[in-house]
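Tokens in:
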């Protein structure tokens, strides 16, 4: 089966399955390998959840013409959010050790103790746990996330631009 000839629905179903696989791997790494996610990691997971939800809705609905851009736009919003978070995470990881922000409270405590706007500011400022490099196959996890956000965006755009096959009325 040639991926360049997949229908819109199949492409979006594959996008959904990839997102669920990535989230499943994140949970496996957390609970089996003991890799505790930092707040930026959790926000990257949210980006994949948003993308996965709209990939699934697009696959189920299977719209024509402009409706396809609606779902693709929502998938791309999730990807853009994830790209920004992963980029920020990689930037924090690249800082020299003396410039890394001190470790802060966990995300659950921040949501309980502070208003949402302050939580966002604190998360994007980063903390010491965000600077820890945990390589998987030689690359840090946020770089893998960034690559997947880009690849899934390309998948969504390619599926949307592909011409729909005419339906036969019998």
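Residues out:
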């Amino acid at each position: 089966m040639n991926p360049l000839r997949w229908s819109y629905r199949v492409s979006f179903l594959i996008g959904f399955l990839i997102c669920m696989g990535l989230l499943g791997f994140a949970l496996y790494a957390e609970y089996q390998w003991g890799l505790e996610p930092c707040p930026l990691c959790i926000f990257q997971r949210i980006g994949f959840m948003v993308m996965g939800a709209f990939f699934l809705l697009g696959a189920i609905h299977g719209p024509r013409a402009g409706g396809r851009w609606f779902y693709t736009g929502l998938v791309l919003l999730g990807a853009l959010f994830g790209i920004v978070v992963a980029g920020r995470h990689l930037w924090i990881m690249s800082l020299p050790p003396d410039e890394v922000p001190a470790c802060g409270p966990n995300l659950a405590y921040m949501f309980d103790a502070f208003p949402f706007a302050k939580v966002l500011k604190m998360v994007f400022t980063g903390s010491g746990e965000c600077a820890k490099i945990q390589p998987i196959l030689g690359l840090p996890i946020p770089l893998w996330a960034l690559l997947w956000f880009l690849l899934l965006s390309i998948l969504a755009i390619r599926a949307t631009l592909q011409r729909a096959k005419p339906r036969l009325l019998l």
